[in-house]
Every structure is written in structure tokens, then in C-alpha cells.
Amino acid sequence: MVLPDELLLLADGHCLTEQVMFACHPEGADDHDDLRASSLETLTQLVGAGFGCPLVPALALRSSWATDTGVILRQVDIANAERRIRLVARKTFPRGQALNALADLIRAHLPNPVRKLG
User: Fold this and answer.
1) Which contiguous run of DSSP H or E holds residue 31?
2) Confidence band (pLDDT; 50, 70, 90) for 64?
3) How far apart are CA 110 and CA 62, in angstroms?
4) Is residue 28 part of a domain?
């Protein structure tokens, strides 16, 4: 797996940070100074600048951030790994049909290897 000195993480409080730490089990991760960012976009820019490597959800890879940066994308197979993505709105939101259409569009265009659960 990734060495702790190379691991790029989102700032504390992001659920992705906890999931990456659980998946990678970097020894001494709590004891070393790792490089953290406030967004996935910042993480990917740090990778392009040669600062290390993060685990990034497949849905975040649909942008062109890796184009012409020399960044190499690799799929990591982690048993039973999953993330649930939710589209949430208050009951009184006036554009419920638009949200349903957006959800349908997202489901119809999931990148590989992302799959719809249930």
C-alpha cells in the first residue's frame, strides 16, 4: 500500500479521510505530519506537482485534471469498498423534479468501475 510519507489526505472531518485511513492502515499515520488539503481538486493539483498520492473516488476522475500532468491513475481493488452518494434536499424545495432528473442523469452516466447499488 501507500507509504505514510506519500499519502495525501483531505483535511480532518472529511469522511473520505477516515475511509482512506481505514483502507490503507498506514502505520504511524497519527504520529507523522502528512500533507492535507481541503478539496479533491487541491489533492489532485498536489499530485500533479509531485507531492505524493491520494486515494480518489472514481466519480471524481471524470474531470480533465489528469490530462497532460503526468499523473498516472490506477484502480485499487479493496474488498467490499463502497461509497454512497446521496442527493439531498429539503421537502419544501420547489424543484424536486429537476433533482430527480439530475439523479437519473448521474445514474445513467456512472464511470467504470462505479456501479449502482440496489
Assistant:
1) none
2) low
3) 9
4) yes
Range of the domain at 28: 4-62
Cα–Cα dist 22/16, whole Å: 10
Q: How far is CA 53 from the centre of its chain?
A: 12
Reported as a single tens digit per residue, the pLDDT across 72-115 is 777 777 777 777 778 889 999 999 999 999 989 988 887 766 77
Q: Which residues pair with 10 in a beta bridge?
A: 37
Q: Does residue 98 lie within any of the structural domains?
A: no
* Distance spanning both ends of the chain, measured CA to CA: 30
Contact 27, 4 (CB under 8 A): yes
Helix (H) or strand (E) holding 36: strand 35-37
What is the Cα–Cα distance from 3 to 25, expressed in whole angstroms?
10
Q: Considering the chain, what is the average pLDDT of its residues? A: 77
The Cβ of residue 102 has, within 10 Å, a number of other Cβ atoms equal to 12
| Span 28-42, average pLDDT | 68
